[in-house]
From TrEMBL:
This is DUF3039 family protein. Residues 9-21 have a biased composition (Basic and acidic residues). InterPro entries: DUF3039 (IPR021400). Residues 1-21 are annotated as: Disordered.
Length: 78
């Protein structure tokens, strides 16, 4: 029996652009925690991911998150 080492395969996006296609609404107290520890967050739409980027003004927002957010009752900024 013999073994062989295979060449390393690059599975990264070839465009080099790791900007999310859209941003999601997430509990703000979880954003910093995720950014520091790499833990995952759950968006209003149910998407689960680690926070890696901050949205810039005009960034596209997940339509499902936006719909849910618009239907939430007004609340405090605790």
């Amino acid at each position: 029996m013999s073994t062989q080492t295979l060449p390393e395969v690059d599975t990264r996006d070839s465009t080099g652009d790791d900007t999310p296609k859209m941003f999601h609404y997430v509990r703000k107290d979880k954003i910093a925690e995720s950014a520091v520890t790499g833990s995952v967050v759950v968006a209003l739409c149910g998407e689960v991911f680690p926070v890696t980027r901050s949205p810039k003004p005009g960034s596209p927002v997940c339509p499902e998150c936006q719909r849910i957010y618009n239907n939430l009752p007004p609340g405090g900024d605790d």
